[in-house]
Amino acid sequence: MSDRGRASYDALFARLRSKGEGAFVPFVVLGDPDPETSLDLVRALVRGGADALELGLPFSDPVADGPVIQAASTRALAGGVAIADCWEIVTAVRTDFPDTPIGMLVYANLLFRRGIADFYVKASHAGADSVLVADAPVLESAQLAEAARETGIAPVLIAPPNADEATLTSVASSSEGYVYVVTRPGVTGTDERLRDTSHLLIAQLQRLGSAPPLLGFGISKPAHVRAALEMGAAGAISGSAVVSHIASSAGRKGQMVEAVGQFVREMKEATKPS
Fold this sequence. Notes:
Blueprint: H1 4-19, E1 23-29, H2 35-47, E2 53-56, H3 67-78, H4 83-96, E3 102-106, H5 108-114, H6 116-126, E4 130-133, H7 142-150, E5 154-156, E6 158-159, H8 165-174, E7 179-182, H9 198-207, E8 213-216, H10 222-230, E9 235-238, H11 240-248, H12 253-269
Parallel strand pairs: 1-2, 1-9, 2-3, 3-4, 4-5, 6-7, 7-8, 8-9
């Protein structure tokens, strides 16, 4: 099977390096607040300047997520969104933006309930480039990584802040596309300041020859993006801050779409040389 997913990220990071830029990757939950609006929001992310996307499948028990993203899953599920609807959104985004890497963030229950092989086939057919299974332990991720590669999808693993050398070695050797570096223990959310110890983790991953590290958890303002790049990250991922704009504009679709697009423009600007 081809390494389509990894190639998509490789091309992205090569383009960014040639311009001296970092990557900004926004996250949203698919189907929030409804499938039609969700598609328009994802389109606004890319048009606002997102270098890649991280899209979550709504799940009833997202243990790695804080209240903001939990509420997004609740809104999507309450609105009746189905996984099939989510794949349709991904397919539409892939058609509209063929060169934008699309990453999926999912929970293991969604894979095992439907069958691992079937899940990755559907993700590949929809146009996903990578899959991160948020609650899969590193030591148990080999089966998932193999299934991903068989369908041309890049497996992405999380590098936690308290990881030992053995864990980081596994993360570095198994991840393709990028590595999700977590800034702190706990769940997703927005922070005022980022912990400056993340540069040690990033440096370890780079010594191990890992895929480009992207810093996530707490990224909510342009200063955080600049700080992530200064720590050696290839870019930053922001979820709760994006989803907060969706929640605060409930019932006002035009305002919602404009708000997320403007947020991405501001965050993307911070990845560029001053």
